[in-house]
Write a structure and sequence with these properties.
It is built from six helices and four strands. By secondary structure, it is an alpha/beta fold. It is globular and about 40 Å long.
């Protein structure tokens, strides 16, 4: 079994998916978490590539957010689409990253991802509130790469 498969238990994955669903209830924004073993690229560059490969740039308001984790490398990045990046403060992703990092440093990866997802959801809600007729444009499940 790969380290990606060992990173979270099935129950932990379900907790994170529940956080994504909770965060998206009040926003038209879309949040995804992607795990993979390793990247040879700069972590933000890899997150951008994964973002596009998951077609997260196809949302109506360009307000998708990806939390990318390279498990073996012990690095992660947050990548937001054009619409959200134009709406949030410059330091938003850094403060969200700090919250995740605090948990990751103690080995609490599940809580780090949950808190990161919920914080991203709160920010999305302020700039992209849920409106009548909004649909879930992207899957909530955690995606996994090699």
């Amino acid at each position: 079994m790969s380290k990606v498969e060992d990173f979270l238990t099935a129950d932990q994955e379900q907790q994170i998916i529940a956080a994504i669903r909770q965060a998206e209830k009040a926003t038209s924004g879309e949040i995804r978490v992607h795990l993979e073993k390793h990247t040879d690229l700069d972590v933000l560059e890899r997150a951008e590539k994964v973002f596009h490969s998951l077609k997260m740039d196809n949302t109506a308001q360009r307000n998708g957010v990806l939390i990318y984790v390279a498990v073996e490398d012990r690095i992660f990045a947050i990548y937001g689409d054009q619409g959200i990046n134009e709406a949030v403060p410059d330091n938003f992703w850094n403060s969200t990253k700090d919250v995740i990092l605090t948990h990751f440093k103690t080995g609490n990866f599940t809580q780090g991802l949950i808190d990161g997802v919920l914080l991203a959801g709160k920010q999305l809600q302020q700039h992209f509130p849920w409106e009548q007729g909004d649909i879930n444009e992207l899957p909530d499940e955690i995606s996994k790469g090699q």
